[in-house]
Design a protein that fits this description.
Aspartate Aminotransferase, domain 1
């Protein structure tokens, strides 16, 4: 006889040591929290325009340059508000007249929607595909900014980053990389602006955005800022550039987020850089995909292996069991945030495979899911 989800007890020997599997905000490594506690009294509550904080920001910008292998002339720009605010800033200060968007999930669609409401830009071109897949760019002479998403967090789809063949001279490629940055490799020659928030792979908290900008992107930002376009001061990318080069932000930033991001970047770099982080994520996602393919009730949502994310895995379940019941039982046992993305509306779990998570915990998670399914059926 099936049990109520909240009454299911998973044996302690099956449980992961750490039950955090959220796709964002993600697990923050305990070592980072401990180190932050040790230094917080001399850091929190101090001016972000003085050496104590500016040194941390400088180290973070340098660490990101190393992590992403940025060529000479690129700059790491930062600002307050997260990726959603960066979209707004990009509508004012990065897109010149017309953008093209690949929309294949909730987040990639949100940027396209934001641009479509801007009165001083031409209507964006929006190319869509079914959820669980991704479309490809189509070069158009009128497009000055191609807007891609490296990893669609809602659906668990990753796309390669390739500059569109035949794009107009000077056209930029801007990439939302919030759930990929730091664990999915990319080629800077194919991108001009790679932007993200730090609360996923980089195991920090929210409240910040980072944009890795090529010389072409920096020139575009400067040119638009010098034009007669009205740009709110808090959304000015040129203001963000000017302040970032001084290792500060326009207004007061989230100091804890900055430090935790630095800690994760240094941890990744010290252990082998992008290869280290990517290998950890791939080992976990490979395990989950293999488990789902071998299951009699689960299957990977993304059917094309080439499009499957190595950082966010989505798993569908058949009608014999409700994914929401599985997630509820897991949560009652301290295994958190495995629910599918609410607006996708599928019988699905969504599991983060960010580098801060341990492979042994991922293996324990799938074992725990199997135990819950047995009790529910």
């Amino acid at each position: 006889m099936s049990q109520e989800p909240l009454n299911i007890q998973i044996p302690s020997n099956l449980l992961p040591a750490d039950g955090r599997f959220a796709s964002g905000p993600s697990k923050v490594r305990p070592e980072a929290i401990a180190d932050f506690a040790d230094m917080a009294n001399g850091y929190m509550g101090t001016s972000h325009r003085k050496p104590g904080v500016k040194d941390i920001v400088g180290r973070l910008r340098s660490g990101m340059t190393d992590l992403f292998g940025l060529p000479d002339g690129w700059e790491v720009i930062m600002g307050n508000g997260g990726t959603t605010l960066f979209w707004d800033a990009a509508t004012f200060g990065l897109i010149e007249q017309q953008s093209q968007h690949l929309s294949f999930g909730e987040f990639s669609g949100k940027f396209a929607s934001a641009v479509s409401k801007v009165p001083f830009l031409n209507d964006p071109q929006i190319i869509t595909s079914d959820y669980g897949s991704h479309p490809v760019c189509e070069a158009e002479a009128s497009v000055d900014t191609y807007c891609l998403t490296h990893n669609e967090t809602t659906t668990g789809v990753t796309m390669p980053l390739v500059r569109p063949a035949g794009a107009a001279d000077g056209a930029l490629v801007a990439v939302d990389a919030t759930s990929a940055a730091g664990a999915v490799a990319w080629d800077p020659s194919q991108v001009d602006c790679y932007y993200f928030a730090p609360q996923k792979v980089l195991a920090s908290d929210g409240g910040l955005w980072f944009a890795l900008c090529s010389p072409a992107a920096l020139e575009r930002i400067e040119r638009i800022a010098a034009s007669d376009r009205w740009i709110p001061a808090g959304l000015s990318l040129q203001t963000a550039v000017n302040n970032s080069l001084k290792n500060q932000t326009y207004n007061t930033p989230a100091l804890a987020s900055i430090y935790l991001t630095l800690h994760q970047v240094q941890w990744i770099n010290t252990n082998g850089g992008m290869d280290f982080a990517a290998e950890r994520s791939k080992a976990m996602s490979d395990h989950v995909y293999s488990w789902a393919e071998a299951s009699d009730v689960a299957t990977p949502f993304v059917t094309d292996p080439a499009m499957r994310s190595q950082v966010v895995v989505t798993v569908d379940f058949d009608d014999s069991v409700k994914a929401d019941d599985i997630a509820a039982a897991l949560r009652a046992n301290g295994i958190l945030d495995t629910e599918g993305y609410r607006k996708l509306g599928r019988n699905q779990l969504r599991i983060a495979c960010f580098p801060a998570i341990e492979l042994s915990d991922m293996q324990a998670l799938t074992t725990s899911i199997d135990h819950v399914v047995e009790q529910l059926r």
